[in-house]
């Protein structure tokens, strides 16, 4: 424990003259002379007499606690390294508007977020990051073991970025892979993995999917590709100009050939998810990958710790006042 204002601790030195004054002043209290004390020799002191100094010690305790509160005690803050078993994983999730199709419940993007969130929650030792992509890609969260923060960032994963024009709509699989690779290439983990989820085929981006896969292979990164969406056609909510939504049947065009080639080149695996249950099973299977040791640096933040001292000061002061005015009350 540390003190922000440690100089106030010097006030504790005032205890010594106060204690000395207290015991010297007791010798000046009124006395009564008796001719013989033999009659009082075998009288046991009452419990009130035994507690006669209790208010004094309670006052000392109150003073000490108040000084400690003024000095502002804090818990120690420090960095510590811990070793855990895990793998480095970048989740790359397609956020193009086609992910709003409702062949998965309630739609593809929500189902993908829910399953990925459960995967993160069930992988406490894994170092996980998040990349999202449509016609362009960017990192939503770098690799981290702070899964609480990562899960909070899933709230920003939606198709609104593409639907609202903040980023171009489309599917840039190569860009999504390249962005994830940039986060994994410096990793020292034995297992480095990209889990790529998309519902379409590459139609945007400056980097081709196979070029990005080659870069991943050179960096020892395996890519597990997931094609999400039912076979045939899927209901897509098309917004009407005057408000409301009209559902149209959109063809499901997943480039399984390219996704399979990406997985094979990097010693990964291609999966096909046509419903929520299959998607959850895929993530569970990937979670069984070989684990390696990670050195995690954790920071313990300091917090003010004055509250217990303040409570003790208040209680000891109240107890002293009660004793002085009831059980140990003295009449001058």
Write the layout of secondary structure elements.
Blueprint: E1 2-3, H1 15-26, H2 47-50, H3 54-70, E2 73-74, E3 78-86, E4 88-94, H4 108-121, E5 127-133, E6 137-144, H5 147-153, H6 160-163, H7 173-184, E7 192-198, H8 209-218, E8 221-228, E9 233-239, E10 245-251, H9 256-265, E11 269-273, H10 276-286, E12 292-300, H11 307-325
Parallel strand pairs: 4-5, 4-7, 7-8, 8-11
Antiparallel strand pairs: 1-2, 3-12, 5-6, 9-10
Description:
The protein has 332 residues and is an alpha/beta fold. The protein contains eleven helices and twelve strands. It has helices spanning 15-26, 47-50, 54-70, 108-121, 147-153, 160-163, 173-184, 209-218, 256-265, 276-286, 307-325; strands spanning 2-3, 73-74, 78-86, 88-94, 127-133, 137-144, 192-198, 221-228, 233-239, 245-251, 269-273, 292-300. Strands 6-5-4-7-8-11 form a six-stranded mixed beta sheet, with helices on both faces. Strands 1-2 form a two-stranded antiparallel ribbon. A two-stranded antiparallel sheet has the order 3-12.
